[in-house]
Amino acid sequence: MNKLVFIALFFFLFQPFAFAQYEPNYDESKVPEFKLPDPLKTFSGKKIRNAKQWEKKRRPELLNFFTQNVYGEVPGELNISSVEVVEQSNNALNGKASRKQVELTFKKDNRSLSYTILMYLPINVEKAPVFLGYNFYGNHTIANDVNILISEAWSRDNPSFGIIHNQLTEQSRGVRTNRWALDEIIGAGYGLAVIYYGEIDPDKDDMSDGVHPFFYVDDQQQPADNEWGSISAWTWGLSRAMDYFQKDADVDASKVIVFGHSRLGKTSLWAGATDTRFAGVISNDSGCGGAALSKRRFGETVWRINRSFPHWFCTNFKNYSKNEEALPVDQHQLIALIAPRPVYVASAEEDLWADPKGEFLSAYYASPVYKLYGKEGIVQKEMPGVNRPIQNTVAYHIRTGKHDVTDFDWEQYIKWADKFVK
C-alpha cells in the first residue's frame, strides 16, 4: 500500500478514537479525582491563620503565580494622555438619567489608542455607585439610544446583528438591551458604565493590534511567555477606567462594581484580583479560566480554551493543557484574591460548558479566606436550588436558562450590591 494512502486511511479510521478522550465531559461520574490546593497553606506548606498572614505571605505568591502562569504580566505602565467628553445629555432615558460618553486616549512613541466609556447616571444621585462592564458588540448595542456613538474598531462578524466585514453598523443598535437591565439599574440608584472591549484589544489571535504593541521592544512581535494575553489587556482597560472615575465628580469611585459575562467574566475576576480599588466583582457564567475549577475537567477544559482562544491567556498557561493536575493553584484561589471585597458568582442551568458546579465550588472553597476577615461566604457544599440565590459577601446563584445575562441576574446583583457595596 502506498505510504500516503496508508497514513490517510489511518487518520480516517482512528482519528475519532485518538481525540475521543478530549471530547467535553458532561458526566459527573467521569470527573477525575483531584485534590484542590488549600488557599490557606503556602506553597512551602505553611498554614495561614489570619488576615495579616494572608496579605503578607499567601496572597502575594498566589497573585504572582496567576500573573506569571495564567493571565500574564502587564510589561509596563501606560497612563491616560487625555480625556474628552465627546457627548453628554442631562435628559437621557426619558429624564431619569444623564448620559456621558468619555474618550480616553493613550499615547506612546508614535502610537495612539482611544476607547470610549458610555455612562448612564441616575439624575437624582449626586455621586453614583457604578456597575462597570465590557460589551461584545459596541456601546450602541446596549440601549435603543440614537445618541450612542458607534465604534469603528474591529468586531467579530455577526450577520444576525448586521455585523459583516468586521465592522459595527447602525443595524446592530440596541440588539443587546436584554443583557443590561438599564432602567432597573438606574431606578435602583446605580450608574452603568460600559466599554466595547474590542477598542482595547480586538478579540482575535493577533498581537499586532490593540494595546500590546505599545510595550514591544525592538523587533518583538508577540508578548513574552509570561506576559499578558487579551484577558489581562482587557483588565488593564478596566483599571484605566477606574483611573478616570477617581477624577469624575459624578461617580463614587469607592463604589465601582466590575461586572463581566463569559470571557468578560473571566476578565472581571482578574480585574478584581489585581486592582483592589474595585469595590465588588461579578462573574456571570465565566467558566474555564474564570470561576470554574480547572481540575474538574468538566465542560470546557484548559486544553480546549487554549486551543480555541490561544490569545486570551499567557503562553505559560499552555503548560497546563491536558495537565491540570500539575497546576499548583485553581480558580477558587483567584476568587480568594478578591477578599475581603464582595464577589458574586453566577451560573446558568443549561450552561454545562461553563461547569456550574465547578463555579459554585470555587465560591465555596474561596470562602475560608473571607472568614479570616469575618465575612460570610458560602457555608454549605451542596449547590443551592435553581433560582434560589445565596446572598452573602461571597454570593452565588444558578438560574434557569442558557449562557446569557438576564433580568433575573441583574435583580440579584442589585439586591446584593445594595447590601454589600452601596
Automatic annotation (TrEMBL):
Tell me where in this chain the 4-O-methyl-glucuronoyl methylesterase-like domain is found.
Answer: 192-374
Its signal peptide is 1-20
Q: Which UniProt keywords apply?
A: Hydrolase, Serine esterase, Signal
Reading the lineage from the top rank, the first entry is Bacteria
GO terms (molecular function) for this protein are: carboxylic ester hydrolase activity
What residue intervals traverse the membrane? none
Q: Which Pfam families match?
A: GCE_fung (PF22244)
| InterPro entries (alphabetical) | AB_hydrolase_fold, GCE-like_dom
* Protein name as annotated: 4-O-methyl-glucuronoyl methylesterase-like domain-containing protein
Species: Draconibacterium aestuarii
Taxonomic lineage: Bacteria, Pseudomonadati, Bacteroidota, Bacteroidia, Marinilabiliales
